[in-house]
Amino acid sequence: MCHNRNGTCQEDNLPCSGHYVNNHCSGHASRRCCLPSESHVQDSGYCSNVKVISRDSWGARRPSSILPISTPVPLFFIHHTAGHTCFETNQCIQALKGIQNYHIDSRGYNDIGYSFLIGQDGNVYEGRGWNSQGAHTKNHNDHSFAASFMGNFMSHLPVQKALDAAQALIECGVAKGYIEGDYSLYGHRDVKATSCPGDSLYNHIRAWPHYNTVPPTLE
Ligand SMILES: [Zn+2]
């Protein structure tokens, strides 16, 4: 597995020009796979102006099953996690692991629910990604993707670099053919009685391109 991806199994206290990933090497836990940096962020499906931290990089658990999604999708939803926010990558990774554990162990999902999560460090974290259906927006999961800002944005906005990251991710999704060119953007509360994605963030995204004041219909 490590070799197939051009990596090297070695003790993880040794320098690695890329980053270490777990569970790819035999032996004890400190013997890990050093993957070269080019496989770190810009795997196919992403764009050079969006920093996407892959599942391997944040140490995601494996999904118990995967539901495919047919693309391009017509809708994109914005959420907030309403939980702890994070300003540093290590903090964001801890938060992500907590969210994934909660979604799998407490809610019974196959995986973390969101397609992507956005940290206040300006990074996009890969959740279910572009290739599988999420569990984020009831009745719309099979024809939309969703990004969730980590934190509670009722009374304040995410930092600018996080807002920029979300918009760049959506544009990238369109450019790569995962999202329709004439997609509609919504906040979670547009389709459900919820405070998500928070008053401040919701008011803000209503000025984004493709925000649609007409709620989506269900077929
Ligand atoms: Zn939501």
Q: Can you put this structure into words, describing what you see?
A:
This protein has four helices and nine strands; from the N terminus they run ββββαβαβββαβα. The strands form two sheets. A six-stranded mixed beta sheet has the order 4-7-6-8-5-9. Strand 6 and strand 7 form a beta hairpin. The protein is globular and about 55 Å long. Bound molecules: zinc ion (ZN). Zinc ion binds next to loops.
Give a brief outline of the structure.
By secondary structure, the protein is of the alpha/beta class. The protein has helices at residues 55-58, 89-106, 160-175, 199-205; strands spanning 8-11, 19-21, 31-35, 52-53, 73-80, 116-118, 124-126, 144-149, 179-187.
Number of helices, where a helix is a run of at least 4 consecutive DSSP H or I residues: 4
How do the SSEs run, as a string of H and E? EEEEHEHEEEHEH
Q: What characteristic shape results from the CA principal axes?
A: globular
Name of the CATH superfamily of the largest domain: Peptidoglycan recognition protein-like
Pfam family, one: Amidase_2
Organism: Tegillarca granosa
Protein name: Peptidoglycan-recognition protein
Family: Belongs to the N-acetylmuramoyl-L-alanine amidase 2 family.
